[in-house]
Design a protein that fits this description.
The complex is a heterodimer of chains A (308) and B (306).
Chain A lengths: L1 H4 L3 H40 L1 H4 L2 H5 L12 H32 L4 H15 L2 H15 L6 H25 L3 H9 L4 H30 L38 H11 L5 H36 L1
Chain B lengths: L3 H42 L5 H6 L3 E6 L5 E3 L2 H32 L1 H17 L2 H22 L9 H25 L3 H9 L4 H30 L2 H7 L16 H8 L8 H35 L1
Helix pairs in contact in B: 1-11, 3-4, 3-6, 3-8, 4-6, 5-6, 5-9, 6-8, 6-9, 7-8, 8-11, 9-10, 10-11
The chains are: A mainly alpha (308), B mainly alpha (306).
Chain lengths: 308, 306
């Protein structure tokens, strides 16, 4: 009786050890599965669109609505132009907001409310941001479906991401550097500009380039702001009011991501699958490039900083 | 004294300009919430549609009048669709996300930092339309073909395909937040557990996961927020039929899919258009509720730790 009730230590150790091995095995399998999915997604997109990826007439040609053989030239340009304008607006604002939050913000209710508002913005669905852009910029301001409406909608989508990255980068600067600068008699502003920002720069630049990848692929915020049509562009046209002038910010501009969505939801282009797979492959190559550039630039800046 | 004055004014300008940036962002967010809310409410105040009929009605057909002479605008089919894809995709993604987070934090940290996390970051950057396209080309087609082998004639569009696409989409978000959550558990906890003779799995299960629970819940809810608000990827694979879903494999609709499809077709000010804004308001309210839940968890966690 006493014998059978006694705790069998050896069996217990065997049991917990085999549990440990089984758990490790399952976890390894899960990670392998995730890596497999990632590889499958990237390879699928690149292979499906491989035929179009190096086809110059596809990359530079005009899109077709009802015939096969359309290109994505204007969409490609629009995507980069929109990205450029978005960064032009969102980087300074985010930089200012992040500096204020990291360096100046007093610990009070107003600061807490501002932080909550930024957090709210980051959790709002991008379609809601797009619909607000439609209501406010497209209709109320009368800008119509235009690059500028799209760029501001994307700015709203991008600001919370950037503010978080920049604020984190500033707060990660060792406390001693900040203290030393302030002790030398520099003001907070001088400390930020001359000491903190240079140190935080690698992380900030990496963050900006990674966010550029997110902006580049965003579509839901754009379908009702930058619009779903891509007028033919004439690069010799410098009449800034003409819809064919590439630099005109008041013309509608469909991007690559919106193009994929639009042709699939309309479903009238005969070579729908080839065009959308090709566009997706181009989009994917750009996203991969943004990721690689972000890492290379971050590393290069870091090296320059530590060498001095 | 005279020398320090320019410094002071630069300081003031710096503080003013950066403060203006944050004020601008705050004003934009408040304007957004106020404008979407005021348009969304006009369905009930201007068009006189009953709010509870809107929430619980199971028929969505805004161009048809019901027995009271009002447009038939029951939003329950879309609300059900949105919650269904959110819950199923979270259930699918959660074990994989937390499992891989445990692996890279507890078992192979070097591999995690150098290989896994950059790859997960790359996965986060893949545009949602690309996920939608994969959903169309692979998931919808495979679902249809597999069901066909068992003699079931379905289109492949529906909540099932939508959930899988969303699970793929939120997987990287939930994974990287879970990695942060587990990495934030102090090492002393693990050492204490190992010193008591616990195995690695016992340590993970009883110590690490327990103490990371509030942050893990935050990770899950942020994933759900993303799934609930995703528009285009879901719209491409859900089938866009605004009817009460009676199976995972019949075409359905979500709040976002109806918004995406409908907003361009209706003139501003019509009842149909106003009802679409009410759907947008619902969507916005839901993401505000998710944020509130995250705050409550953080608050409770802070209290718990003292």
């Amino acid at each position: 009786m006493a014998n059978s009730a006694r705790f069998d230590m050896q069996a217990h150790v065997r049991r917990i050890n085999s549990q440990d091995k089984v758990a490790t095995g399952i976890l390894t399998a899960i990670v392998a599965f995730v890596l497999l999915i990632l590889a499958a997604i990237i390879i699928y997109i690149l292979v499906q669109g491989a035929g179009k990826l190096f086809d110059v007439s596809f990359l530079t040609g005009e899109p077709e609505q009802f015939r096969a053989g359309g290109g994505i030239g204007p969409e490609l340009f629009n995507s980069f132009y929109l990205l450029f304008l978005t960064l032009l607006i969102s980087v300074p604002i985010s930089l200012g907001a992040a500096i204020f939050l990291a360096e100046y913000a007093p610990e009070n209710g107003v600061t807490a409310a501002a932080k909550t508002l930024i957090e709210t913005l980051s959790s709002l669905p991008s379609i809601v941001v797009g619909l607000f852009g439609f209501l406010f910029f497209v209709l109320m301001m009368g800008w119509g479906f235009s690059i500028i409406s799209g760029a501001i909608a994307l700015t709203m989508f991008n600001i919370p991401i950037l503010v978080r990255v920049i604020q984190q980068a500033l707060e990660d600067v060792p406390r001693s550097q900040r203290d030393a600068a302030l002790a030398m008699g520099l003001t907070r502003w001088e400390t930020t500009i001359h000491v903190l920002l240079p140190v935080a720069m690698p992380a900030i630049v990496t963050g900006i380039v990674l966010s550029a990848g997110r902006v580049f692929g965003e579509a839901a915020a754009l379908i009702y702001t930058a619009g779903q049509s891509a007028p033919a562009l004439d690069f010799t046209n410098f009449d800034f009011t003409s819809p064919s002038c590439p630099w005109n910010i008041f013309r509608p501009a469909e991007t690559l991501a919106v193009h994929i969505w639009k042709i699939n939801s309309e479903g009238v282009v005969p070579d729908l699958e080839a065009v959308s797979n090709g566009t997706a492959a181009v989009l994917m190559v750009c996203i991969l490039a943004f990721n690689i550039i972000a890492r290379l630039v971050g590393k290069a800046l870091e090296r320059r900083l530590t060498r001095e | 004294m005279a020398q320090s004055l320019p410094k002071l004014s630069v300081e003031r300008i710096g503080k003013g300009v950066t403060g203006a940036c944050i004020a601008l962002v705050a004003i934009l967010v408040i304007t957004l919430v106020a404008m979407v809310a005021s348009r969304g409410i006009s369905t009930f105040t201007v068009n006189g549609i009953n709010f509870f009929d809107f929430l619980t009605g199971t028929e969505w057909n805004p161009h048809q009048l019901d027995e009271n002479g009002q447009p038939t605008v029951g939003a329950l089919p879309m609300i059900t669709g949105s919650f269904a894809v959110t819950i199923f995709s979270t259930l699918l993604a959660l074990p994989i996300a937390i499992g891989s987070a445990i692996f890279v934090v507890e078992i192979a940290p070097g591999f995690g930092r150098r290989v896994f996390q950059p790859l997960i970051e790359l996965l986060t950057g893949i545009p949602s339309v690309v996920y939608g396209l994969i959903g169309l080309g692979v998931i919808v087609a495979t679902t249809r073909d597999v069901a066909g082998m068992f003699g079931a004639g379905i289109t492949g569009y529906g909540i099932f395909s939508g959930s899988i696409v969303l699970a793929l989409m939120i997987l990287p978000t939930v994974t990287s937040l879970s990695i942060d959550a587990l990495a934030a558990v102090p090492n002393e906890y693990r050492e204490g557990s190992y010193a008591l003779g616990c195995t690695r799995w016992q340590t993970v299960w009883n110590v690490v996961l327990r103490s990371a629970l509030p942050s893990l819940m935050t990770a899950v809810i942020l994933g759900m927020t993303r799934a609930f608000g995703e528009a285009l990827a879901v719209q491409m694979v859900i089938g866009n039929a605004a009817q009460m879903p009676d199976s995972l494999f019949t075409p359905a609709a979500t709040l976002t899919s109806v918004l995406t499809m409908g907003m361009g077709n209706e003139a501003m000010g019509t009842v149909y258009n106003n009802v679409l804004w009410s759907l947008a308001l619902l969507l916005m309210a839901m993401s505000l509720i998710f944020i509130l839940i995250i705050h409550l968890i953080a608050h409770k966690g802070a209290k718990h730790r003292g």
